[in-house]
Amino acid sequence: MPTDTALELIRAYKDKRARNPMADRRTLYKYLLWDRFQGRMIMDSEIETMASETCSLYELTLKVVERERPALASPATRKALERELTRFFRLNAPDHLPPDKLI
After folding, report:
1. Dihedrals φ, ψ of 74, to 5°?
2. What single DSSP character describes residue 38?
3. DSSP state of 26
4. What separation in angstroms does the CA of 58 have from each of 1, 39, 40, 44, 83?
């Protein structure tokens, strides 16, 4: 479930932030991605790109779900995935939503 992935990333982000309060967002996202994809076939450059092009935990969750479950990234299911994650983040972590999703 995408919401399970979101919850895992939120918890991991809070843990990483508590352990390393001086780290910037991009560095914390890289740590999350390295932990998440440990032992899987993914290049460091792809992790770097995902972390640097992401401005919120919501967007990072979308990218992780799309990487782990490519069927959810198809045009037919993408809107439903975005709706489900937007609803989840509004209820559980509104501070991790991009500004255009707060409305």
Report:
1. -65, 155
2. T
3. H
4. 15, 24, 22, 21, 11
| Residue bearing tokens 């967002």 | 25
* Residue (of 9, 64, 11) closest to 42 by Cα position: 64
Residue 30 parent element (H or E): helix 25-36
In the chain, which stretches have pLDDT less than 50?
none
Distance CA 71, CA 87 (A): 20
pTM of the model: 0.86
- Nearest CA to 63 out of 98, 99, 16, 39 is that of 98
Distances (CA, A) of 77 to 3, 14, 45, 72, 93: 15, 29, 27, 5, 23
The pLDDT value given to residue 2: 84
Burial class, 6, CB count within 10 angstroms (exposed 0-12 / middle 13-18 / buried 19+): buried
Three-state DSSP at 103 gives coil
User: Rounded distance, CA 68 to CA 24, Å?
Assistant: 25
Single-letter code of the amino acid located at 35? D
